[in-house]
Amino acid sequence: MLDIGDSALEPLAPATAKGAAMRQRLLDASARVFARKGYEATRVEDIVKIARTSYGNFYRHFRNKDEILLAVLRPLIDEIYVASKRRIGRSLKATEAEFIENTIAYLKIYAQHRKLLRVMREAAARGEKATFLSLYVSERSRFVRRTTTWLMRLQGLGELSRELDPEMAAEVLGSTMEQIAYMKFDLAPKDPSDAETQHIGTHCAKVWYRGVFGMVKESPEASN
């Protein structure tokens, strides 16, 4: 499988401030076009038209539409990765409330970029020959590895049963979040409200957290 870090896919770095500005114009234009038209229907012609530039300028910075979409998506995925990280200073075994907070943070950022992230899934679905299948698999594995490492550390401290397979648990979380995000965000006719995002994130987090760590005892105040 092709590695997305392969130098053959690295964008050509602009040599001047003017070149950097043009590259950003192209990125902004492509984000608008991909979000509106999807992967298959987008053409380089559409991007240069929105950017109000020439084919020559496009090909000075990007080899094809796959490469420019990769450049658009990478910072979005990084933003989601950072938003869902465990907060500094908190215990290794997050409370259910902290886990809910992280899940909602993840979904809020996802919701902001839902149209472009749907394009990534669309492009990845093209199969083994698609550059985006490699991107999708690579980025997904980054999230799964982080969760697997967390669960393994908890097992080492005796905070989690050895019966649980950390990697499988991490895969379940990843798959749950992917499918929920796809159904409730990617395919939604309009942007979800904050209340909807919090509702979805809270239930996803509770189901997963309680499946791994067991039911959480509610305080008397919470049950009233």
From TrEMBL:
Q: Which residues form the HTH tetR-type domain?
A: 20-80
Q: Which InterPro entries match?
A: Homeodomain-like_sf, HTH-type_TetR-like_transc_reg, HTH_TetR, Tet_transcr_reg_TetR-rel_C_sf
Q: Which domain of life is it from?
A: Bacteria
UniProt DNA-binding region: 43-62
Q: Does the keyword Transcription apply?
A: yes
Q: Which UniProt keywords apply?
A: DNA-binding, Transcription, Transcription regulation
The entry's protein name is TetR/AcrR family transcriptional regulator
